[in-house]
Structures are given as C-alpha cells and as structure tokens.
Design goal:
Elements lengths: L8 E3 L8 E3 L6 E5 L11 H16 L4 E5 L3 H13 L4 E4 L4 H7 L6 E4 L7 H14 L2 E7 L5 H8 L5 H18 L5 E6 L3 H12 L7 E2 L7 H17 L5 E2 L7 H14 L8 E4 L10 H14 L5 E4 L15 E6 L2 E6 L2 E7 L7 H20 L3
Parallel strand pairs: 3-4, 3-10, 4-5, 5-6, 6-7, 7-8, 9-10, 11-12, 12-13
Antiparallel strand pairs: 1-2, 13-14, 14-15
Helix pairs in contact: 2-3, 3-4, 5-6, 6-7, 7-8, 8-9
C-alpha cells in the first residue's frame, strides 16, 4: 500500500516556547502526558518550580511535547502559567467544554487536543479554530476506539465495518471539519488498546490523507505489557513511515514513557542522536551490581548530547570482550571494578580491604567507580 507523505505542521514558538516541526522531513517527536493535577501552581511557587524542574528533566532525555489534562478553568489558568516559564511545547487536553480551550489559548499553549464531536456545536469548534489561528497554535484531533460517534459505533456493532475502519472513518470526518474552515495546522491520532486495530486504523488513514499522525496504543497497561504493545505497533507503523509523533502510554512514569519512545525510535532508525546505553541482564556470577549502576546513571547518560555507546556489564565474561564495540564500559571482577574504552581496560579499581564492613567497603568502591567513570565519560 502507498501512504501519503505528511504535511509539515509547526508547533510552539510563542513566548519562551521552542518551535518544533511535526511531519514532513522533521524527526519523529516524542510526547508524554503529565500524570498529576497542576492547580496548586496558582498559589504555590514551590509547586510551580517542582513541575518546571521535572519538565526540564523530561526535555533532557528527549521529550519534545507534554500533554496536560485540562478538566476545569483553574487547570487552564495553571497550564498558561506553566507555559510562561518553560521552553517545552505544552498540549492542552480538552474534553466537552470548548471554553477551556479558549482559556488555554490566552497563554503560550502550543497545541490543543480535542475531539470535535464532544465539544458541542460546530459553532464551538469554529471558535476554537479561530482562536488557534489568531494565536498560531496547532490542533490535534484525538479519536479513541472507546468514543466513536453513535452512527459509526452502530456500524461497528452490526459488523458492517471493523473497529479500525470506524476509527479511520471518524478521524476523516473530524478532519473534514477543519478542512472546511481552512485550518491546516492539524495533527490526527487514532488510538485503540488493540495493537492490530491501532495499526490498521493508521494505515487506512495514511493511505488517503497527508495529515501528520500522532501514534499510540491507548490504555496499553502497566510497564511491561505497555512497552510490548507500543513496541509492536510503533515498529510496524514507523517501518512504513507512518507516524510523525509518538506517545508510549504506560501506567507508569512519564520518564519511562519517554525513554521507551526514545529507544523505539533508535531501534527503528528514526532517531540516532544521544547516548546508546546497553547493559547485561546480570546472572549468578554477580561481579557487579548492574541494576543499581544503571538506575544511578540512566538519566544523566540519556541527557548527554554525545553520540556514543555505553556498556554496563555484570562481570568479565560480558565485560571488555563482549562490550568491546562500546565507546565506554564498566564491569565487575570480584572485589574490583574495570572501566574500559573500545574493549581496552583503562582503569582498574580495587576494593579497600581495610574496610571490614562489607556494605561500607562496597559503597566506597562504587563511589570511586562513579568518580572514575564520570571522568572517562566526559573526556570522550
């Protein structure tokens, strides 16, 4: 099947907000969703600073957009306040009340996510579109398998069309509204909890329309099942060049959503920049605590603008030998830690046997290992 090349949609660029491109020849962007309420920022500067700090952390590991639920007017005002202080493009997730979208557009919100079918009359949609035109904001049409229009849902229930066809048909119907209003800064998403339905819906739409697609598997589940579902769906679609922006939906942290999305894009060849972190699964040889080292270092490594591979190996079996392709690696060997570059040992650290307490001895060794690893990392 032949799929349309998506048009380019600009998002952001208001106030401090950076401008990014979605679609066209732009890199596939990574989105996550904020998972807490934000109203507290209206009267608590510490709450605002905390959110801004966490947004910056997400940005450093590769997040390009963050969507916020806006269930009420205070949340809309809070989102405007957050947008005033961050360069991250923020997306307002609006349901039922178009006035919430209008309130968000008083600030530097970069994109509005709506389902035109659930915010009332066409006049309400026109008001949102006009406000977006005036502000230079984009709109994402969000269609989920659980909220299909009644007439299309009836066709699905009567087995006249599949649910995937219903998703694509609904998205096409909603997109036509914006076409009639001469508004082309539109991104479309069609999500289902089924991997197959998600793939088929996006393939169907991409064969007919050139609107950029935001892909995701909705209600994907907890960490493991969510990662599996998203990986299967995204890999299939991205290999067909379908998908201009992605969100890995997990019942887990935004950090893990972004990291998973980043790794999927790396393995499908859609994004190659940044540190590639590899680690062995660990086994009974127990030469080195891979898990705790990766936990300590993952965020810092993924935040670096270095095109390198870092290997964290549990013992000498998987150390300099199997990790020789890495630019930098670390592994354990009894009471020692070895740091290597391109398979050649550059530093060996030994535990201080004068420290009798085993836990304190290990802690001292790990502190020395962290210091030497950091020195070698930043010398690359």
């Amino acid at each position: 099947m032949i799929y349309k090349i998506p048009r380019t949609v600009s998002v952001g660029g208001l106030g401090k907000t950076k401008r990014i491109e979605i679609g066209g020849n732009a890199p596939v962007s990574i989105q996550t969703m904020w998972k807490e309420g934000i109203v507290s920022v209206l009267n608590d500067r510490n709450a605002l600073d905390s959110i801004l700090y966490r947004i910056n952390e997400l940005s450093q590991i590769g997040c390009d957009l963050i969507r916020f639920a806006v269930p009420d007017m205070d949340s809309a005002k809070a989102l405007c306040l957050i947008a005033e202080y961050t360069s991250m493009p923020l997306v307002a997730d609006i349901h039922f009340d178009y006035k919430l979208a209008l309130e968000c557009l008083k600030g530097n919100v970069a994109k509005i996510r709506i389902n035109p079918g659930n915010i009332g009359s066409k006049e309400n949609v026109i008001k949102v579109v006009n406000a977006c035109k005036e502000k230079g904001a984009a709109i994402r049409i969000g269609v989920n398998s659980g909220s299909l229009p009644h007439d299309i849902l009836e066709q699905v229930n009567n087995k006249q069309i599949t649910r995937a066809e219903g998703l694509a048909l609904t998205a096409a119907r909603e997109a036509e509204i914006f076409n009639e209003l001469n508004f082309d800064s539109v991104v479309v998403s069609m999500k289902a909890s089924s991997v197959e339905e998600t793939i088929l819906a996006n393939e169907s739409f991409a064969s007919k329309f050139d609107l950029p697609l935001h892909i995701g598997v909705t209600e994907a589940g907890p960490l493991i099942s969510g990662v599996v579902k998203s990986t299967i769906a995204f890999t299939h679609l991205l290999n067909e060049n379908i998908g201009s922006t992605i969100r890995v939906s997990l019942s887990d942290s935004p950090m893990n959503e972004v990291i998973t999305g980043r790794e999927i894009l790396r393995e499908t060849g859609k994004r190659t920049e940044g540190v590639k972190l590899i680690s062995c699964p660990r086994c009974g040889r127990l030469g080195f605590d891979v898990h705790s080292f990766v936990t300590r270092w993952q965020t810092e490594l993924l935040s670096l603008n270095k095109d390198i591979t870092v290997a964290v190996m549990g013992c000498v079996v998987n150390g300099p030998g199997e990790g020789k392709h890495a630019d930098l690696g670390i592994c354990g060997a009894g009471d020692s830690v070895i740091i290597f570059k391109h398979g050649k040992i550059c530093c060996t650290l030994k535990a201080d046997l004068s420290i009798k307490d085993e836990e304190l001895r290990l802690k001292s060794l790990m502190e020395n290992a962290d210091n030497e690893f950091r020195k070698e990392l930043y010398s690359l």
